[in-house]
Amino acid sequence: MEVPRHWRLRQQRYALVGEVCPHCDAKLFPPRDVCPHCGQEARTRFTFSGRGEVYSYTHMSDAPAGFEQNAPYTVALVKLEEGPLVTAQLTDLDGKPVEIGMPVEMVTRRIRSDDGEKGILVYGYKFRPVLAGPR
Predict the structure, then answer these.
(1) For residues 50 and 16, is the Cβ–Cβ distance under 8 A?
(2) What is the per-residue burial (b if ≥16 Cβ within 10 Å, else e) of 105-129?
(3) What are phi and psi of 75, to 5 degrees?
(4) What is the rounded distance in angstroms from the CA atom of residue 89 to the CA atom of residue 97?
(5) What is the pTM of this model?
(6) What is the pLDDT along the chain (135 residues), one digit of tens a residue?
(7) Using alpha carbons only, what angle is made at residue 49 by residues 46 and 55, rounded to the nearest 5 degrees?
(8) Is 79 exposed, middle or buried (0-12, 13-18, 19+ CB in 10 A)?
């Protein structure tokens, strides 16, 4: 993957920036030109809170190409507070069992590298269990 592409995707990877439909108020992630709920144009930027809960999950022991060094790991469907479902890796579990409904929050973590080919380290969003205390 080229450096310019990483630069263009930085907001989606680091800040969960999507869109909100001005017609029906649906929150969309990833951004789309047309709202899938009402069919109207939806180009108003919206930054999600990054908080949600585990909707579903699976444990990956046989990782796809480029992610072998991460195996085993857990991937979850996270239902954001604002509504959309996001697929992401869970991190910082520290032996804690994953449960449906478990509160999680977005964090930025290293996802992979290009193994020195161009020196690119790819960072992006993952989710971790909500830490105790006020948010």
Answers:
(1) yes
(2) bbeeeebbeeeeeeeeeeebbbbbb
(3) -115, 140
(4) 14
(5) 0.79
(6) 565 655 566 555 667 888 999 999 999 988 888 999 999 998 889 999 999 999 999 998 888 877 777 788 899 999 999 999 999 999 999 888 999 999 999 998 877 666 556 666 677 889 999 976 555
(7) 110
(8) middle
